[in-house]
Amino acid sequence: MLANLGYFSLVLTFVAALYGAGAAAYGAVRRKPALVESARHAMLLTWPLVTLGALSIIALLVGRHYEVKYVAAVTSNAMPTYLKVTALWGGQAGSLVFWSWLLSAFATAASLRRWERDREFLPWVIVVTMITLAFFISLVIFFENPFQRLWQTLDGRQVSALFQPNGAIPLFPTDGQGLNPLLRHPGMVIHPPMLYLGFVSFVIPYAFAIAALVTRRTDDRWIRITRRWTLVAWLFLSLGLILGGRWAYDVLGWGGYWGWDPVEIAAFMPWLTGTAFLHSVMIQEKRGMLKHWNMLLIILTYSLVIFGTFLTRSGVLSSVHAFAQSAIGPMFFGFIGLTFVVSVSLLMNRWGELRGENYLGSVFARESLFLLNNLLFMGILVVCFWGVLFPLISELFTGQKVTVGPPFYERATGPLWVGLLFLMGVAPLSAYGATSWRSLGRGLWKLLLLSLIVPAALYFSGVTLAGALVGYWLIGFVAIVTLVEFWRGALARHRRHAENLPLAFWRMAIRNRRRYGGYIIHLGVVLMAIGIIGIEMFQTETQGTLARGESLSLGRYTLTYESLAQFDTADGRNVARAVVQVSRDGRYLGDLYPRRDFYYASQQPMTIPGVRSSLQDDFYVLLVGWEPIAQEGATFKIYHNPAVNFVWMGGLIFIAATLLAAWPTREFDALREAATARAVVARA
Amino acid sequence: MNRGTQRSGSTFVGVVSGESHGLMTDKSTLDAVVPPRPSQWGVILVWVFVLGLLAVVGLGLIRAQQGNIGVGARAPDFQLTTFNGSTVEMADVQGQVVVINFWASWCIPCEQEAVELETAHQLFKDQGVVFLGVNYVDTEPEALAYLDRFGITYDNGPDLGTRISQAFRIRGVPETYIVGRDGRLAHVKIGPYESLSEIQTAVNASMEE
Amino acid sequence: MLRSLKGYLVLLAIAAPVLIASAAVQPPPPSDDEVNAIAHQLYCPVCENVPLDVCPTQACAQWRATIREKLAQGWSEVQIKDYFVEQYGARVLATPPARGLNWLVYVLPPVAFLAGAFVLYRAFRSWGQTPEPLVPTAPDADGDPYVARLEEELRRRS
Known about the structure:
The complex is a heterotrimer. Chain A is of the alpha+beta class.
């Protein structure tokens, strides 16, 4: 049957992955290219096999096969088809298969390149990717099996197993539990895949780094090969985090987008080290320095990916996000131990061979600023890591359960974010290899002073919060510096090539995608910072119970309660929907419809806000409670979130610019290949 | 400090290994002969960190997998201040069979067994069996209302600071732990009792040991 | 006598409503905002990592009602938070109380950051010691001008 087909193809994948890893390692050590080639074929085989497994699950989900335990757990008759497909990653077992599918896809894609110059990397890349794949598949086939069926034993108990237990009869339920209501929002549909894409794609740079260590190819070849992979991985991780925030804001109903929940932080930590890595590899490529540090960073990033996945799925941390506890915890623990120990030992063993080719001029050179950037990111990482780990430590050593919540993270990382903001403004003014502060200092002071216009304007329009003034000053500073850089570059090109300015700007950006893409990303970050400061420092809220026709005010806004209707919907929920009128300064703006959904199957309530969005703020209304019988009085909670839409706008620009920076340029790549080929020939 | 000899490889983690190498001034020659190793302190620090992290996480995992305390384990010592104001300690009820029931007023399944527990208490009162109710993470007015509603007369008290429930490592409510005369757990029930007879069977079995 | 009694009765009839009204006037109950201001700083003891002011469960509603009750009785914010800690443990607070082992939470990140800054400082010092002028990574020209120019061009472009 379909379930057996799916299961069997995953078993085959496991075997192929193990064979691939073993054959590649043996073939590399004993110098048997034929064996390595065979291993590569085994690796190529894994993707079609996992695809078969994943497609079987999807077919079971869409086909209402509720006799399969996983299908009964995450789908129901009332769900639309597209949601049933996305239920593939709605539960632990299915999401592990999805992870494996992505991993085998990326391993295959990475292997489909020209290996002539890097033949020695291939076996070790296969070893790393296939061991990881084998691990995740083993979790599925031995512990979290999505193909298990429901049976009823002779003594009336309901069990789930792959093959028919003795004397049991198969059960065929007519409906399922249905996907967790929180996961049915469009934002939630796309957020896990984006995150998984980001996590899984970090395996490739890691595999190449390990390959470089093992084969002692300590130049920056591995970085050049994986440069685009790393950027794409970082792109997806950033996108996943931003989408997660947007989803939380739209659907979770607490007026915010980031709760400093341990599982959120577990996904955030690889992003921190990934961003540090993106910056510091530029130094290695330009100046041949920091080889040890870059190795350490990629090992750390990948380890944090696996560690974060472990924390979310093992039950060690309690969180609203976490999957239910299961037996995969110990397995994951073993895999993490293996990863840490092997990576660290290898790095230490090859430490001496990672020789730097250059030295640093002064603190004011661009390299130094990148290092400061790394220090700040690592500082934030330490805060996050320690905050996540400490409740566990406290409970183990003192028996006392504690919560490490947002105030800790905000206070500890605040100054570090400010430092990063400042660096974003200073770095474009610096030069590689500069030796004195003079070159930096002159431009710096002028622009710092110029950007004081921003906080001054804010101060005179009533903003007195010191933190906000400093933040907006630095935001203005970064924006001005970046725009000046664009202007200067375009102007220089315009003068030299007699192109008109817009064309000059475009040509300049295209030929220097990395640099100018980077600047635009920084501008995106700056826009997001405008929104973040707005909502974090200036959010106001109020709550009140209103009778029909009564009003509630918050600042310049007024909310008037019109009516409330309660009804059942076709997809199995009870909806209480209020109609409220919004006005500002007395002028009527429109109606909003905050509502409360109650899903019968999972007994879970969901609060969907009614939001009026504009560039300068959001007016966010929640229906907190109502009198069911009379339906006269209702309780509303209102949030006023200034500038919050800058977060989403900035996020959009951020992602678009990353795409720009990552886009392959044919002429440039060909040029680079030719030059390096020549250099290799010349060296030989 | 001789500038010519103060060199090192591109070390980052750990302390700079800036030793004086006497005659050798050229870094590349030096490195060819003695490749720089990561400094001692760096290595120790990194391994301490990695192994320490694995140890902490491993212990956390073990504890997460452990679940509640099981049959045969020593019943933890605890102190319960009842709603009436009296204090009950484990030492006070030593040598008797003690039925400890964890409940909360917001817990719907707890209501299923509430009346049966009270009836069982009445039946076993003269046989020296003590019934104790531990109110888990609840508010006093609601808790008292709950007790009133089901006519519960045996001692009940709030689990201050969740210390008692942490000692028993409960994972939810309702859960019932029956301590035998020897001070060890004789019976553990996760979830509500289905019927009075189930409670009777459990208590009788615990009395026999 | 009857007249004075009637007088007293009239007086009472006038005074009574006033007396009753003044006895019945109480301070208004705490507003939702006041309750939320305190609930925002506390965490749901049962559901993990959910602040008390947004938690939708019935138990959380009861806890918010407790806060309202205590506020009405005139308790201060600190008293209410202490009460919750006593009842439900330290995990209801948003950050660990600075006692005993918990000091480690606050101390370690700044210490680690300073240690990192120190390492960076030492690295700068050791690198800055070289008397050699900074040169770009030696191109493997072997005299090939094309390669040298290409390398330079690449460096300028990226």
